[in-house]
């Protein structure tokens, strides 16, 4: 059937590059806006561009993380297998945005507050991690992502072996919870956005609980 | 003590609110009449470079008293000695970057949605330990013929700051009109609340309505100000129209917006942010670089509209120690944050 052929061709040739560019888009947009700002052109970063940058990168990291968690349910529901080929790259993009988010905080806040002293910048980060709950949580989330990112090469995967590698990737669940908590504790008052992110995460995690409970109650050959 | 000359026929509840047309008319009369002399063009030096784009501020730095009113219905006011040397924050930042959670939690939400709030006519309920209580029209609370400009620094707890030319009247004179009694040890203020007009209040970000308060001696301090305008014009809704508090030595959230109630009370009022997170937002909330807030270090601040790659050292009481430090003599300001 024509429709199926188009879908197969899309999955084989277009899915990976398209995903790559879609994932890069937020970063390119942000870079473009900063270039406009530094050149004195109209830009979309508002009256507090540094704050806008932190928020944009933090939101992007978390939302991409949520998308990476939606890949498996998407496959289960649509039975469109090629989507699995981009899960790693989606997860990795979340890691890169989280890293940029932290780098922006280090460079655009702490470094400046420490009068451009790099030692002062890291002292500031350490102080924040120790004192400010939301940054403690953010740091924990970032640390949790590092082993996944470091093992994201094919060679590493082979070296670890599929089982251990899979065990490692369960870390993605606590990382996502930590990231939502980081967002929630960061906001003043009781704001809606962390609840929305948290609600989506709860659905995605709830889906896995239900699925694994079902799988367990069924005879085994269904394991995939 | 500031404009005691003005007692109006206080009629309690019957005084009620001024019809919209009359109110607007009054503002125009005031603006065109130019009854007020400009006593000193304070702060305009600092404002010249940054603010020259604003038609309103041009009116303020020229002989405003003799000028016809700007078409927008700008305010007539005198200058005073209350000014800071720092450059003014551009007006589009002052009116486009706001925390006013009643209209949404994003800084750009108030500018987008605050127009949904109706501010004409406006009345204020006065209650508690005072000789004169009841509902008063805004014009009977604020003497629009005695307005003055004050250029104050505003320091937000989120570690950013602005410099804003407010128009209004000293709070002390306003409060004294109501003849507070000896039991009035604190004064509490409440923000307007209407779920239809204020979309942000449909989510319980805070325990609405927003409440703030001052100790009576703080409220009577010369710096405490009730603003009805900024940059020479009436307050835009997102900045707390039609009347808001300005207490420049405290974090921005103390300067409550769109006030509909003033209560003279004997107990320290439960303020909105203090209820939400007592360890973060104390009753006093004086700007204090020595008290690390659980969320933001308070030692430095980002100046909105200023150099992105520079942070300003935050000063004790936001630089207003001379006027207010005596209010807190002997108090532990870390504990009483
Ligand atoms: C050491 C690690 C981290 C630090 C120091 C950090 C720092 C911050 C800061 C300072 C803000 C507040 C921005 C502002 O309003 O000015 C913020 C917000 C945020 N961060 Fe992080 N962060 C860290 C890790 C992470 C990670 C790993 C994620 C997600 C994967 C994340 C997601 C977010 C989100 C979603 C927000 C809220 C954005 C918004 O309100 O729109 N952060 N972070
Ligand atoms: C060589 C690199 C990577 C490979 C081969 C890989 C592959 C896999 C595989 C096979 C799973 C299935 C585990 C399971 O269902 O229990 C998985 C889970 C997952 N990994 Fe990775 N991954 C890689 C890197 C990353 C990175 C860097 C991230 C994120 C920072 C990430 C995020 C995820 C997510 C979100 C899941 C899904 C868990 C679920 O759906 O239940 N992956 N990964």
- Count of spatially separate domains of chain A: 1
Helix content of chain B: 10-25%
Quick one: overall form of chain A? Answer: globular
What fold name goes in the CATH topology slot of chain B? Answer: Sulfite Oxidase, Chain A, domain 2
Biggest β-sheet of chain B: count, sense, barrel?
A: 8 strands, mixed
Helix count of chain B, per DSSP?
10
**Quaternary structure of the protein:** heterodimer
- Assess the beta-strand content of chain B as a share of residues: 15-25%
CATH architecture of chain B: Alpha-Beta Complex
The SSE order of chain B reads HHHEHHEEHEEHEEHEEEEHEEH
- In whole angstroms, the N-to-C terminal distance of chain A is 27 Å
Q: Helix-strand pattern of chain A, N to C? A: HHHHHHHHH
First-to-last CA distance of chain B: 30 Å
Q: Domains counted in the coordinates of chain B: how many?
A: 1
Major β-sheet annotation of chain A: none
Molecular structure report:
The complex is a heterodimer of chains A (224) and B (337). Chain A is 81% helix and 0% strand. Chain A has 224 residues and is an all-alpha fold. In chain A, helix 1 (2-38) runs antiparallel to helix 2, helix 1 (2-38) packs parallel to helix 3 (87-113) and helix 2 runs parallel beside helix 9. Chain A starts with a helix and ends in a 7-residue tail after the last helix. Chain B has 337 residues and is an alpha+beta fold. Chain B has one domain (9-15, 77-328): Sulfite Oxidase, Chain A, domain 2 (Alpha-Beta Complex), CATH 3.90.420. Chain B has helices spanning 20-33, 44-51, 55-61, 91-96, 109-113, 138-141, 171-177, 216-219, 272-276, 321-324, and strands at 78-79, 123-128, 134-137, 148-156, 160-170, 186-191, 211-215, 225-230, 233-234, 244-246, 259-265, 300-303, 312-313. Chain B is globular. The model of chain B is unreliable at 1-72 (pLDDT under 50). The chains are: A mainly alpha (224), B alpha+beta (337). The interface between A and B is medium-sized, with 24 and 30 residues. The structure holds protoporphyrin IX containing FE (HEM) (2 copies).
